[in-house]
Design a protein that fits this description.
single chain; 138 residues; mainly alpha; two-stranded antiparallel ribbon; 7 helices; 2 strands; elongated
């Protein structure tokens, strides 16, 4: 509840506009949904400040459209995988491609969650090359 003045200038209680749940702005992930919709607030938000320097510098240098795409990508992936995994994956995507691509971020998160793939036998792709006609038989 919060106090406010009614039309006769008496104090009266009003319900909070967004419910009774406590507001936590210390978690950068909690700001991503708002920041993805209010791009002008990105530079003042905690999410940008909590990113590694190279990732933050890249996002800060984006135009409005690019910022919206990056913030939306991080918002969506963070809802699925959490803040830490999303930030690591966005950094991987940036290093690999020079951008924050939703499919690359999702793939990096998935790769990090599943770990290394080990095979019982060494994988020899030469047979596929021969089938595709990339190399001659023999």
């Amino acid at each position: 509840m919060k106090l406010g003045l009614d039309e006769t200038h008496r104090r009266r209680r009003r319900a909070r506009a967004y419910g009774d749940a406590p507001t936590d702005t210390t978690d950068p992930a909690s700001q991503l949904p708002l920041l993805a919709n209010r791009l002008g607030a990105w530079r003042e938000g905690r999410a940008g400040a909590a990113l590694p320097d190279d990732l933050r510098d890249h996002i800060d240098a984006l135009d409005r459209r690019g910022l919206g795409e990056a913030a939306g990508c991080m918002r969506d992936q963070c809802a699925l995988s959490g803040w830490d995994a999303t930030v690591r994956a966005a950094s991987v995507s940036l290093r690999a491609s020079g951008r924050i691509d939703p499919s690359a971020v999702a793939l990096a998160v998935s790769r990090a969650e599943t770990g290394e793939v080990s095979y019982d036998e060494a994988v020899d792709l030469a047979e596929y090359d021969r089938l595709a006609g990339v190399v001659a038989d023999g």
